[in-house]
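Appendix C: a fully annotated inverse folding record. The material below is reproduced so that readers can follow the format used throughout the book. The structure is listed first as tokens, followed by the designed sequence.
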């Protein structure tokens, strides 16, 4: 099993390096894997053309991706990084990539300290960080000044990213790109200036339908614990925030525990105690929304998968009573 996984990672690494080495473009774009990233990439494509080489990365994989790129000869080609923030030690990878001949431009909207910026600056041609807007807007201002379509794309993405929700299109795009398999599709549409069309509306409607089914399935399996709080314990089938909100409306609870079959859980609470309880179960977070995990074995996993039964619920309810 482990060997198999290792082989898979090794294969992935090999094919990524091969793809970088055999690139037919001199622009590589390394970005995050959400709507903001799709928008940043769409704007790059409006300006540099559709042939640029894009890599969508999770926050966790970022360092690995930069290391892979840095192990290939850059030959003076451009590496654009967007919508990914500073991470401890990333300057080592950036330095190596720069030494390997990559000319690096970095556009971001996460919070950086002066010190972090100073660690990166020696190895990049440009580092632009602006926390007041989405990454797509930072990219737009840097590479697509005066491009009206790019400005519109960036504006709609800011609406989503900054939780303003003044434009109904932004939530649709946000929800559709929350599924990884739709990222390239939305990116391509944005690059052509189509924000929402029939195909996107249809994908959105499908996701909404699936979400409702999952929420109702969770609520059907809810167990209520009436102690200090009115706690609803439910198996989770995705969409933890939305399920908690629906349970609060339909069951009248004030604390919702959503547990996945891996033992990982999301916790929502009206009282500002969520993080305090999660801390007792390998987790933490915010006062009203947190997460953690129970150590489930195969038996607990299968009880949840097959019957929607959540193990550790009693111990959790007891812990909630004590905070
Ligand atoms: Mn972003």
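Designed amino acids, in order:
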């Amino acid at each position: 099993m482990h060997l198999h996984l290792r082989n898979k990672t090794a294969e992935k690494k090999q094919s990524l390096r091969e793809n970088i080495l055999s690139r037919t473009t001199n622009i590589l774009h390394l970005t995050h894997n959400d709507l903001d990233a799709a928008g940043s990439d769409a704007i790059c494509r409006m300006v540099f053309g559709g042939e640029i080489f894009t890599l969508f990365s999770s926050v966790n994989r970022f360092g690995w991706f930069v290391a892979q790129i840095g192990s290939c000869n850059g030959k003076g080609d451009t590496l654009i990084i967007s919508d990914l923030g500073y991470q401890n030690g990333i300057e080592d990878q950036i330095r190596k990539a720069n030494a390997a001949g990559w000319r690096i431009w970095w556009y971001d909207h996460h919070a950086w300290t002066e010190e972090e910026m100073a660690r990166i600056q020696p190895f990049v041609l440009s580092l632009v960080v602006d926390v007041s807007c989405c990454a797509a807007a930072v990219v737009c201002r840097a590479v697509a000044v005066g491009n009206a379509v790019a400005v519109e794309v960036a504006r709609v993405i800011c609406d989503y990213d900054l939780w303003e929700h003044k434009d109904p299109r932004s939530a649709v795009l946000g929800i559709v790109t929350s599924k990884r398999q739709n990222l390239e599709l939305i990116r391509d549409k944005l690059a052509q200036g189509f924000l929402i069309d029939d195909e996107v509306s249809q994908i959105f409607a499908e996701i909404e339908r699936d979400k409702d089914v999952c929420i109702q399935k969770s609520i059907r399996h809810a167990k209520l614990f009436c102690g200090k709080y009115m706690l609803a314990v439910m198996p989770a089938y995705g969409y933890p925030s939305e399920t908690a909100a629906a349970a609060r409306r339909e069951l009248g609870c004030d604390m919702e525990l959503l547990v996945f079959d891996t033992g990982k859980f999301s916790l929502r609470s009206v009282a500002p105690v969520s993080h305090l309880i999660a801390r007792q179960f390998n987790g933490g977070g915010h006062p009203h929304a947190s997460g953690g995990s129970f150590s489930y074995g195969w038996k607990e996993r299968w009880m949840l998968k097959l019957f929607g039964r959540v193990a550790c619920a009693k111990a959790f309810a007891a812990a909630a009573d004590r905070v």
